[in-house]
Amino acid sequence: MSLLEINGLKKSFVTPDGAPHLVVDVPAFSLEARSQLALRGESGSGKTTLLNLISGILAPDAGSIRLNGADMAALGERERDRLRATSIGYIFQTFNLLQGWSALENVLLGMTFGHGADPGFAESLLRRVALGEKLRHRPPQLSTGQQQRVAVARALANRPKLVLADEPTGNLDAANARDALQLIRDICHESGAALLLVSHDRDVLAQFEQVAELATLNRAA
Amino acid sequence: MTILHIVLRSLRQHALSTGITAASIALAGGLVLAVWTVKDQARAAFTQMQSGFDAVLGARGAQLQLTLNAIFHLEASPGNLAWIDYLQIKTNPAVAVALPISVGDNYQGWRLVGTLTNFFTEVEYAHGRKYRVAQGGPFLAGHMEAVVGSFAARKLGLKVGDTFHPYHGLIFDEKQQHAETYVVTGILEPSNTPADRVIWIPLEGIQNMKGHDAKAAADISAVLVKLRAAAAGRQLDLLYNKQGTRLTFAWPVAAVMAQLFDKIAWFDRVLELVAVLVALVATGSVLASIYNSMNERRRDIAILRALGAPARTIFCSVVLESAAIALIGMTVAFVVYAGVVAGVAAVMRAQTGVVLEPLAWHPVLVLAPVAMIGFSALAGVVPAVKAYRTPVADNLVPMS
Predict the structure, then answer these.
(1) 3-state secondary structure at position B199
(2) What is the pTM assigned to this prediction?
């Protein structure tokens, strides 16, 4: 059984003129445990919506999303929150760190709603991303690359089975982007988490052995 | 990492609005605490004050005026009564102590009260506590000597051996100076009663002061009465108030003073209403403060939700934050309260000699904080619902 199995997934939004607009239409998709897959997709191709559906942030209109056997689409909001907190790590393009919280607190937040806060593990993650000396620094006191590394550490904080990454290097320069991506891949590999990354950046996609076209996967793209 | 941690971080992140809102809660809470305690303590202080006397005998008039004049040394005397009236009540078997007093002069606005020396030897203002002369000694009857109440002595800067000229009337008028020179022979020990703000002189001093009506030289202003048994007051009440028409027997002093507070009870209600309205406005400011900051909080809420925080956790954290702001405010409110009550107590003591106890227990000291925190938490429900409904995906920009 695959870690992630999607069947007949559909999601529409209502446009300002009241008409439904189909954004995601994925007949079938699967991802194996511990695998790393990059999805190529341009802006507006429904990349973020697909990841939000997989993470349970959005509820689908139709279809199923089975994560480790549990159908995310059939769960209520509270159960989806719980599953996301315990099984999924999410790396955003804009990092989405809480600005008033320290690096350590941001990472601790990544585990609080799942298996509970473990300061020792949070510190070890930050040391792993070379931020052992910046535990008490808040995001505004960190460089963009350092903020990205905090976001990576946070995504791994709940010991997830699946890490979703949405244009994770979109805000970094080429050198930092390369380093950050390698770090994400390494750290997912070390922790045994599968990685599903979406990007339109050729350099990013070039680093992956498995790359799929979102346009092929998503009939609404 | 708990909801409490999220709340504390949010309070820190919005420190300015938290501080301003907490300050408004502190002022409103301090006002509520002060209004309730001061009005109740003032009533208790005036109606339960231990002066050592149960009743006052005076000229025909209002019992309240007589009591205010003779016990609290406020108000003008309703008139004089004859020496024989004092002798009659003094020999009544129901009376334990009868002390004649005369008023009509002042020194720089501080009232002179003429009385007998047994004021210092027979009168117990509290169980086992007499009006004791702390420095110097009591005046001698018939001499131009004075014993100054502790508060008056401090304010006037008088000490044993000092001399002064009294002024005619109860209100200070520098043109009304008497020629007589009085010597301070003693300073009273503080008793926390109106006696502290009076200058005590021999009874004959007031009666024989030059310029006073010679025909009324033997008259007195009132007789302070200590009964052997409380129930004996009924007999004297019947004698002077029901059967007699010439004199007034103000008894019991506590009930007479309660009349004053009953008369101004409407004002208490107004004060309470104003305080409650201010408190409600302050709790409303908690709602406004958090609600107005919801736009800037949306992204943080969306991040927390994306990390798996249940919507109810977000809801609870906003309600708890509202309660926490009120908790901070009400903690500071006790400082405001202490300041207001200390100020009121100082003014009241200066004006009446009655002493409030700022640290005395009052149920409002618990009820007001509980109510303010409760109402603030309730006010927090409105922004909490908004936070609960925050669309996560829409606020995790950018979308691609």
Answers:
(1) strand
(2) 0.80
Number of neighbours of residue A190 by Cβ within 10 angstroms = 10
Domain span at B222: 55-251
Give the one of A58, A94, A109 whose C-beta lies nearest to B398's C-beta.
A94
**Chain B residue with the nearest C-alpha to that of A79:** B310
B225 and B290 housed in the same domain: no
- CA of A87 to nearest chain B CA: how many angstroms apart? 10
Pair (B230, B349) in one structural domain: no
Angle between helices B265-292 and B294-306 (to 10 degrees): 60
Q: What is the pLDDT of residues B111-164, one digit of tens each?
A: 999 999 999 999 998 888 999 999 999 999 989 999 999 999 999 999 999 999
Q: Is residue A31 within a helix (H) or strand (E), and if so which, with residue range?
A: strand A20-31
How distant, in Å, are the alpha carbons of A2, A62, B392 from that of A6? 10, 11, 22
Question: Per the structure, how many domains does chain B have?
Answer: 2
Contact between A96 and B392 using a beta-carbon 8 Å cutoff: no
* Contact indicator for B315, B5 with CB cutoff of 8 Å: no
Residue B60 backbone phi and psi in degrees, to 5:
-60, 130
Note whether B225 and B267 are same-domain residues. no
- The C-alpha atoms of residue A214 and residue A198 are separated, in whole angstroms, by 9
Cα within 13 Å of Cα(B147), Cβ side = 27
